[in-house]
Design goal:
Tachylectin-2, Chain A, eight-stranded mixed sheet, seven-stranded mixed sheet, about 10% helix
Length: about 400
């Protein structure tokens, strides 16, 4: 396990209107994406989107919370949790994805057998979890920077209007679930709770309209799964549909990856490469780490990616204090021409990461991309940056 190269503090102390506790936000971070001087964050216990701003000195603050129901027509009730598990930025849209998973009750310490057995038999299906959406961001100086909007002018073409939209279908009848219900690999896992190796989407990355969905589960005999789709505007506004991308009219593509038996917790882009945050699928203590799929963002067909085709970038802290510190979200953290870095945020952050105002997250320097030229350029960039600081 590698120590982080830097630690930052994320101030999260401004609940929206009393309907969500700040502490709940701090304890349930599940996704992150950097957009300029802002970090947008998702939580797996709320129906909100969080924004913090770079204050310098390794601190992010000026916390703002945006209700997702004010931005997009949610499949379920406005305050029902969305379980935001992935965020991605492809200008001019911020993309987000819910887990698409069923939620099983927990047997907790102190329960008797009857209470525990009833909890374990309770499986909920929350419509808001079945969400794939895009939301435009608008630069609003009065609001302190980029703000998510239901609609706004396109900064590249003011005569064009950008609109928020979600994939059509409601809840478990979403178009993605309808497509996967006939899949020979995934259909049997749709009704299994996510934490029991059932279907569980936990990462998203977008490239030119192609949306990559990383699955925490199922892991199939050690193989993790990425589902690739291409949402396009549907008639009527506010909705997207899946475009046909495979023979026979299939609207999705699959990629199988050998991540040492781990599932996918998040995805991030590094040039043409896809970085994969991997961790245990089920509720067990197991390693967590980041892998590199070289050329993953440019893949044009379904693929099987063996372990020797994946680079292990770094191992991460996991369950360092027993039941806490779960690496759940990551994003590229660097700006401009400086050394490339990766930010990792933790769900169930340990007490050492939390204070009354926020949480800490880890920053890791990324090794040079494969290739002689990339190594030389990045080494020189790193040297010049360090020299300028010293």
């Amino acid at each position: 396990m590698r120590a982080p190269d830097q630690t930052i503090h994320i101030g999260l102390n401004a609940p929206p209107d009393g309907s969500v506790e700040s502490e709940a936000i701090r304890e349930s971070l599940s996704s992150a994406v950097r957009v300029g001087r802002h970090l947008f964050l998702g939580c797996d216990e709320t129906a909100t989107l969080e924004r913090v701003t770079d204050l310098g000195g390794g601190r992010f603050g000026e916390h703002r919370t945006y209700k997702l129901a004010d931005l997009v027509d949610l499949p379920g009730k406005a305050d029902d949790e969305v379980d935001v598990e992935g965020l991605a930025w492809e200008p001019p849209y911020l993309w987000l994805v819910g887990s698409h998973s069923r939620k099983q009750g927990k047997a907790k310490r102190g329960m008797d057998f009857k209470e525990a057995s009833e909890a374990l038999a309770d499986v909920d299906v929350d419509d808001n979890r079945y969400l794939i959406a895009r939301i435009p961001l608008e630069d609003d100086p009065e609001a302190g920077g980029l703000v998510p909007r239901k609609s706004c002018p396109d900064p590249r073409d003011p005569e064009r209007t950008l609109t928020a939209a979600r994939l059509r279908g409601r809840g478990r009848n979403s178009e993605l679930i309808r497509e996967l219900s006939g899949d020979p690999h995934l259909r049997r896992f749709i009704k299994i709770p996510g934490k029991d190796n059932g279907l569980d989407v936990e990462g998203v990355q977008v490239d030119d309209g192609r949306v990559f969905l990383g699955l925490r589960g199922p892991v199939l005999r050690g193989w993790a799964v990425i589902v690739q789709v291409e949402p396009v505007d549907a008639k009527g506004g506010g909705r997207m549909r899946l475009r046909e991308i495979e023979a026979g009219g299939r609207r999705y593509r699959k990629h199988f990856l050998d991540l040492d038996g781990l599932g996918i917790r998040d995805l991030a882009r590094d040039g043409d490469d896809l970085l994969i945050l991997a961790g245990p699928t089920m509720d067990v203590s197991a390693p967590a780490g980041v892998f590199r799929w070289r050329g993953g963002m440019r893949v044009q067909e379904e693929s099987l990616v063996p372990a020797d085709a994946l680079e292990r970038v770094t191992m991460l802290p996991h369950d360092v204090q027993g039941g806490s510190d779960h690496p759940e979200g990551m994003c590229r953290f660097d700006e401009g021409d400086g050394p490339r870095t990766l930010l990792v945020v933790y769900d169930a952050a340990s007490a050492s990461r939390r204070d009354a105002h926020g949480v800490t997250a880890d920053v890791y320097a990324l090794p040079p991309r494969p290739g002689v030229l990339g190594t030389v350029v990045e080494t020189l960039t790193s040297f010049v940056t360090r020299d300028g600081e010293g």
